[in-house]
Amino acid sequence: MAVSVTFNEERLAGQAAETVRALVADRVHERLAAGDATLWGEEARAEAAVRLGWLNLPLTSRELLPEIGILVERARAQGLDHVVLAGMGGSSLAPEVICASADVPLTVLDTTDPGQVRRALNDRLERTIVVVASKSGGTVETDSHRRVYEQAFRDAGIDPAERIVVVTDPGSPLEQAAMDAGYPVILADPNVGGRYSALSAFGLVPSALAGADVLKLLDDADAVRPLLAQAEGNPGLELGAALGAAALAGRDKLVLEDGMSEINGLPDWIEQLVAESTGKSGKGILPVVGADPNETGDELVAGIDSDGSVTVAGPLGAQFLVWEYATAVAGRVLGIDPFNQPNVTESKENTSRLLAAGDLPLGTPALVDGPVEVYGEGLADAKDLSDVLTRLLQAIPDDGYLAVMAYLDREAAFDAPVAEGASFDAMTDAWSAADPATLRGLLAVRTERPVTFGWGPRFLHSTGQYHKGGPQNGVFLQITGENPVDLEVPGRPYTLGRLQLAQALGDQGALTGRGRPTVRLHLSDRVAGVARLLEAAREV
User: What is the C-alpha end-to-end distance of the chain, expressed in Å?
Assistant: First the structure.
């Protein structure tokens, strides 16, 4: 089954059709199918020339299947049924969607939160196989995970070479380190960028080990591939034209809904693809995941097998390829390079400098509201936390958005304690409060503007590019927290908790350096701090 794109709104259908005609007149469909690197202008040509390998992955990735099959057979023979993926951005988001949609278990470590990492370490270590995935081979989070697991395996009397698999690009420092350590290495196509790598080794290796049918994924993508070279009936061209034309007309907030789709979590993957590809040079399309649409006039609703201004239906493998194609087309329509990420390294460099400098520059809180310390400019006269949140919401421009960024435990940050023998209503209230969507929802109902939510440092590899390179209309709320139990990173002069806080401060510096309003809330007690934060959000 191929992907279908259906327009449920006359205005959008007209804009998309007009844009498709212009694209076809420029032979974009033919040139993109042929890998023409000149489609995005002379400045983007060099980057695009080494970033178009994703067009052929439904075919070329088949060459990896025998090698992947050997890894799967070996893991099954050894009884290794707990698959842990250490990866960031495109290296983690695609496998997470693939495995969730296939209903096979995969533990994803795209965090530096010591509690979350420690919990993974304590889960069936004797039956664990770890996939260390990094395109550059130097991703600090993934390097930390590898070191932590190597030490844990050795401490348990397990040879890490029997439990760690590496996926990386040819010639990366990780490839050499893995070869020296005797780890199996599967090399990815170097002509594919991280966010376009769903159908590459980065998506296939962890997913196959977890039990997903990766051959079907490639077959479904291959089924739609011929359509992407056509002038008519080309779902990627139609979707890309719609995204680009809508953004040029002022509808640059892309609300992603997956309704009752059998595909689980695809909006999170699309969020990274679209935000990091288009959010630069003061332009961009802001994906909004998990939020109800507002009647603000600047939102475009895309439904994954569900109703929206545009509905995109089809199997997961085909959806990956069509959204990648559409994002590349939208980049041409918007006049940006969809393959670079000029602002991503800034926060990384800030983090490295902070770690090397010694003590982290925490600053002095503008106010303290119980277990919540508030850091930010112009807040000296704020009365309490609810007043701070009110001011943040009021600071959002008419065409802007609020981004909530939580450097906490993605799996347990909003867990609420439930007393033994508690009533059903009490348990329901606790479960509701435990959902991070509760915080976003509490803030969203108090503004007409979009509210996004990202887990740090995960979002730094996706929407982080848009935050710094996109339009100057964002307002930012950081949440950090004390780590009662930290975790050493073997061979490095920092702990995971220190790295986590340095990443937050590094990104805060990148945002404030651009004059983008940023407030950091530090939870001196995580459980009590979350409770106070939710209470304050209700008081706004």
Answer: 48
Q: Are 223 and 2 in contact (CB under 8 A)?
A: yes
Asked whether 2 and 224 are in contact (CB, 8 A), the reply is yes
In tens digits, the chain (540 residues) has pLDDT values of 689 999 999 999 999 999 999 999 999 999 999 999 999 999 999 999 999 999 999 999 999 999 999 999 999 999 999 999 999 999 999 999 999 999 999 999 999 999 999 999 999 999 999 999 999 999 999 999 999 999 999 999 999 999 999 999 999 999 999 999 999 999 999 999 999 999 999 999 999 999 999 999 999 999 999 999 999 999 999 999 999 999 999 999 999 999 778 899 999 999 999 999 999 999 999 999 988 888 789 999 999 988 899 999 999 999 999 999 999 999 999 999 999 999 988 888 999 999 999 889 999 999 999 999 999 999 989 999 999 999 999 999 999 999 999 999 998 877 655 445 555 454 344 444 446 678 999 999 999 999 999 999 999 988 999 999 999 999 999 999 999 999 999 999 999 999 999 999 999 999 999 999 999 999 999 999 999 999 999 999
CA dist., res. 524 & res. 87, Å (int): 29
- The answer to whether 485 and 340 are in contact (CB under 8 A) is no
Q: What is the largest CA-CA distance in the chain?
A: 69
Handedness of CA 10, 248, 330, 207 (dihedral sign): negative
Q: What is the CA radius of gyration of the chain?
A: 23
The C-alpha atoms of residue 174 and residue 406 are separated, in whole angstroms, by: 29
Closest CA to 457 of 421, 494, 408, 495: 408
Strand order of the β-sheet with 82-86 is: 107-109, 82-86, 128-134, 164-168, 185-187
Give 454's strand partners.
Answer: 405
Match 């936390």 to its residue by tokens.
Answer: 385
CB 318 within 8 A of CB 305: no
Q: What one-character DSSP code corresponds to residue 445?
A: T
Distance between CA atoms of residues 205 and 187, nearest Å: 10
In DSSP terms, 401 is beta-bridged to 474
Alpha carbon 329 to its chain centroid, in Å, reads 21
Task: Report how far residue 188's alpha carbon sits from residue 172's, in angstroms, rounded to the nearest whole number.
Answer: 11
Beta-carbon contacts of 411 under 8 Å, excluding residues fewer than 6 positions away, are 116, 119
Please count the residues of the chain.
Answer: 540
Instruction: Return the closest-CA partner of residue 83 out of 137, 116, 120.
Output: 120
Using the structure block, give the residue that is written with the tokens 């039990």: 211
d(CA 416, CA 530): 9
Phi-psi region of 408 (alpha: psi -120 to 50; beta: other; left: phi over 0): beta
* Residue 418: strand, helix, or coil: coil
Q: How many CB atoms lie within 10 A of CB 224?
A: 25
